[in-house]
Amino acid sequence: MRRLHLNEVVTRDGFQNEPAFIPTDAKVALIDELGDCGYAKVEVTSFTSPRAIPMLRDADEVIGRIRRVPGVEYTVLVPNVRGAERAMEARADELNVVMSTSETHNLANLRMPREKSFAALREVIGIAQGQVPVNVSLSTSFGCPMEGDVPQDEVLRWGARFAELGVRGLTVCDTTGMAHPGQVARLCEALQHRFAGLQLTLHFHNTRGMGLANVLAAVQQGITRFDGSLGGLGGCPYAPGASGNICSEDAIHMLQAMGYDTGVDLARLLDAARRLPGIVGHEVPGQVAKAGRCTDLHPAPAAVAELRDLHRPAGSTAGEASR
């Protein structure tokens, strides 16, 4: 089975929509714990304006205090040149920049047309060139809640424009959970054909319950990199009724059960997931942390032993009946 690479986004994408501020100490402790779980990347925070995202106003302190585990890349979201400069001063391993493939969503989310976003991000990529790798996240690549379908060619067109600037990777995002497995398979095939030299990552939301099915469709097309959020936290404020990202531990449990090597210590990750409700102050959508792994067995009810005796063939002993 192929080696898959998992990226954890809970402390940025997951936390940014939480209503109550999560203390800096709790963020640092969770990132340190996640770093020990075997992820390829951990998205630490966002170097955006504290007025825009108050939850992440402690970005400099968080990234300055985390314990960096060798082999784990600590990536951050940056919206502009000033954010990129702060991130590079903080020694981020990767800069992640975002824009929408949908004009309407870009206006709603970033308050500017796509061309203006592209121009601003081109500046970011320029100052990072040769210093730190840049990943571009293309939002609403599988559909926009205001425009509807986003043509596949439009996603490829924006991907190509960024690829020409020398970025290291593209993350193709189902920002509002509109994707279905057939659509995912088609786009993944096209992406790999067009951008064979780039790191390709898929980012799914579980808004309509198809998140894990979409992960599987992408894996079957050869994609090896995926974002996930511990507990399934997160969501898009411009998608009415949207739930969070795919749940990291649920996705990793599924992939490991199917024989894929994710590099993640699932038992350790589940320990972190079970502590997450205490950090955010509410229940979270993840299922495996509540139900346990499919290999976690439970003792049979006491009545089962009595029933075995009752239905044992006449003349046989307990040992004979169990053979």
From the structure above, extract its key features.
323 residues; alpha/beta; TIM Barrel; 8-stranded parallel beta barrel; 14 helices; 8 strands; 14% strand; globular
Helix content: 40-55%
The total count of helices amounts to 14
Mean pLDDT: 94
Instruction: Using the coordinates above, name the CATH class.
Output: Alpha Beta
Class derived from helix and strand content = alpha/beta
Query: Using DSSP, what is the number of strands?
Result: 8
Which fold name corresponds to the CATH topology? TIM Barrel
Distance between the termini: 35 Å
The low-pLDDT segments are none
Q: Please indicate the count of domains.
A: 1
> Which word captures the global form?
globular
Q: What portion of residues belong to β-strands?
A: 5-15%
Order of helices and strands: EHHEHEHEHHEHEHEHEHHHHH
Computed Rg: 22 Å
CATH architecture assignment name: Alpha-Beta Barrel
Strand order of the largest sheet: 1-2-3-4-5-6-7-8
Largest sheet: 8 strands, parallel, barrel
Q: CATH-wise, what's the superfamily?
A: Aldolase class I
